[in-house]
Amino acid sequence: MNKLLRPKKIKIVEVGPRDGLQNEKKIIKSTEKAKLIKMLFNAGCEEVEAGSFVRADKIPQMADVNNLIGELKKLNIDLSKCTFLVPNLQGLERAYNLGITKIAVFTATSETFNKKNINASIDESLKRIEELAKVAVTYKIEMRGYISTVFGCPYEGIKEGQNYLKFLTDLARQLFAIKINEISFGDTIGVAHPDQVEEFSSHLLEKFGNKKIALHFHDTRGMAITNILTALNLGVEIFDSSLGGLGGCPYAKGATGNVATEDLLNLFNNLKVESGLDLKKYAEASKFILNELEKETTSKFLLNYFKA
Amino acid sequence: MNKLLRPKKIKIVEVGPRDGLQNEKKIIKSTEKAKLIKMLFNAGCEEVEAGSFVRADKIPQMADVNNLIGELKKLNIDLSKCTFLVPNLQGLERAYNLGITKIAVFTATSETFNKKNINASIDESLKRIEELAKVAVTYKIEMRGYISTVFGCPYEGIKEGQNYLKFLTDLARQLFAIKINEISFGDTIGVAHPDQVEEFSSHLLEKFGNKKIALHFHDTRGMAITNILTALNLGVEIFDSSLGGLGGCPYAKGATGNVATEDLLNLFNNLKVESGLDLKKYAEASKFILNELEKETTSKFLLNYFKA
After folding, report:
1. Which of A37, A254, B69, B204 is the most exposed place for a label (fewest CB within 10 A)?
2. Measured between CB atoms, which of B193, B220, B308 is closest to A304?
3. pLDDT tens-digit profile of B223-237?
4. So what's the ipTM on this one?
């Protein structure tokens, strides 16, 4: 295996408090969420996706965002390291007024998924993001972009081939053009496999380099770590993950959601790739929130770590 | 990634009915075991580890081996494709008298593990195997060898470096010298990681080629498939696995045991590597035995497959 391209240091974007928690049924109090985020920064996190400004009735777990930000301030948490998902201008105004300096915006490679998820075509979602971006730039708010269903869609299946890669690259290019700083390519339903990851990653790295490309895997079929190693060996150095594997998959009841950050740490620690994260403190944060959620981790590694 | 060495076709040795079941508490009847083995061959298995001739009081799940072989014969199962674990000459005689033509023998790279497991030093275990092998050869019985704790031992930890690799190679060479046909190198406690697998596999492939080398991973920490892909890309083409991920880990209560055959099939099918196994029929066999055991699979892929 060609390990010459493998980075010595990677960045993990912790998405547990948003992408993870929003797929958990039990509502967690703002004080507990803030405590969790504090623990994550204490464990070495560089960047935490902390919440979102979506409609409270659509995603009740995220309804407390104003309150949460108040709690984060009370704990002296550096808000510049916290990202908040923002779907529209109204959300952007709220975020700005609360002192948020980093937001995430989102679209998908699937028309059907976008229609069902945000009631917009891909083009319409790009226009919305563009409007948002114009204002965000004047507010000096940094933007992260999510592209969902990159490796497969629950409605449109798996797309591959040169035309699809060209479409994907064009989509990413449009986002970079409007000052999106980093794009996270998501395997929303956990169907990616290593050869596909290799093909897609090589293509994206060739077009955009490895400083603005993140990969976001779900471990629905137990393939996330294999995919991450494949991408890592090609030079990808930004990965999204969720502490303890928080979050189910809304498209398959009972299925596993985001890959657990601890699984990444197990891999990176073994390979001596620096993540800056402290596994012990991380596992404590997971124990705390899993206890709040009254559930077990979906990570075999972490389960074993807890028992050892 | 250099995929030039990746085999187009691999062999899976199904160890569920022995290595898997022997770590399950609920005793399965011989008729049900035979039915399971029949389903596995119907799903395309080339080789099934079907049972063992160890002491009935030590491993109650394997106490019915005489009966099981009777049931296999009733179902017209080709016994030449069934391997039975044999610890000593007495077991060999029993196997021979029942018409068995393929046995597995075992040792480990750890003195402590061997002492606790078979009450013998590594050298003593080699002597026992040698005595066995002499007789087996006269009976025209084919032999498979297991080396346990290759990647880590519950008592002696993880060993690496050139001296260890030399020791491992010498051990394997001694087994090949006494007509052991194929050696399965085991990650008994599921601690192997990809760089270690790469180092060990490259070394073993260089010394022995890829026709007699099998790898046997446990998914205790969710790293088995990542390790298997790493080895596959280097040319390893024989892998042991257990349907549905049957079998716990006797050294860590509640931890995951053998990697699930279906996880391998998910990987190999995605990579278009031929295994000869039918996933649908395999999943049916797993459903049958998991139902008998009254437990859920440990495989995220299979869990998702069942729910889809």
Report:
1. A254
2. B220
3. 999 999 999 999 999
4. 0.96
